[in-house]
Design brief:
Mean pLDDT: 96
Structural class: alpha/beta
Number of helices: 8
Largest sheet: 10 strands, mixed
Number of domains: 2
Helix content: 25-40%
Shape: globular
Low-confidence stretches: none
Strand content: 25-35%
Radius of gyration: 20 Å
Order of helices and strands: HEHHEEEEHHEHEHEHEE
Length: 265
């Protein structure tokens, strides 16, 4: 995995704003960075933790924000009740911010409801945007006001701390879907999804494929150097479908690159 490409993909990822989430948003574009960053990335952690590591390094490398605390576990009666992602400070104003971060991939299923906010689901249908927002509102953000947090952060005035989320998303819509979306959703759409049968039917000899490991999801497929034909991915995808695991696929056809999910449902 190319560190510089992975870092850039996180830094440039779209975040959903207040009009969608109902929560104050911290945009990574607010960070003033003096140059393009490249730093060593851990190889043995999950994608969500990798995104946290990258955002942490970006904040620390900026000239306008600093990290006061990160990944703070709150423990009560020997039980972990939650974790606070970041406590950061804007240097110019001395404003302290409790920041919660998420890096998510959601697919739009129009059959769920008439309200778009309910229709963004995880690739394997076991999580959703609405559930994530509820968790942020009901569990993660209120952790700041727990007695454990007050004891942990006894050098800052909790009542003066503002709160924000950085919900970075890559969105995917049904193949050949004709519906429209608000601009906030629209600019976060990275591709489409379909089932394995449709994928098979659309294959031809001009197309090449790559199935990136999850830690590379969200990166630019044009920077990938390893490609194969349909036969090179067919068995892996078949197995994933049987195991009810959606596959993210990159496609190259001449100079055109596409990103899509192949789903089992």
């Amino acid at each position: 995995m190319k560190s510089k490409s992975r870092i850039k993909s996180i830094f440039k990822a779209n975040s959903l704003d207040y009009s969608i989430t109902g929560l104050h948003t911290f945009n990574l574009s607010e960070l003033e960075l003096s140059n393009d960053l490249e730093f060593d990335l851990p190889t043995n952690i999950r994608l969500g933790h990798l995104a946290e590591k990258i955002v942490s390094e970006l904040i620390k490398s900026s000239v306008n924000y600093k990290v006061l605390y990160e990944n703070i576990q709150l423990i009560e009666d020997k039980k972990t009740i939650g974790e606070i992602d970041f406590i950061i400070e804007e240097i110019a104003s001395s404003q302290v911010i409790h920041l919660e971060l998420a890096y998510k991939f959601y697919l739009f299923d129009p059959s769920i409801s008439s309200s778009p906010i309910n229709n963004w689901i995880g690739p394997n249908r076991n999580d959703s945007l609405r559930e994530k927002l509820e968790k942020l509102k009901q569990k993660q953000l209120p952790l700041l006001y727990h007695n454990c947090a007050k004891a942990k952060f006894n050098n800052i005035e909790i009542e003066d701390v503002s709160q924000a989320i950085c919900l970075l998303v890559s969105l995917f819509v049904p193949y050949e879907y004709k519906g429209s979306f608000s601009p906030i959703y629209e600019k976060a759409i990275r591709g489409f999804y379909f089932n394995f049968e449709t994928f098979s039917n659309l294959d031809n000899s001009a197309k090449e494929y790559h199935l990136p490991p999850k830690k590379e999801w969200g990166m630019n497929p044009s920077e990938n150097e390893n490609w194969t034909d349909f036969a090179g991915v067919e068995n892996f995808i078949n197995t994933s479908m049987k195991e009810k695991q959606a596959s993210l696929c990159w496609q190259k056809c001449e100079d055109l690159y596409l990103t899509f999910f192949i789903v089992w449902w």
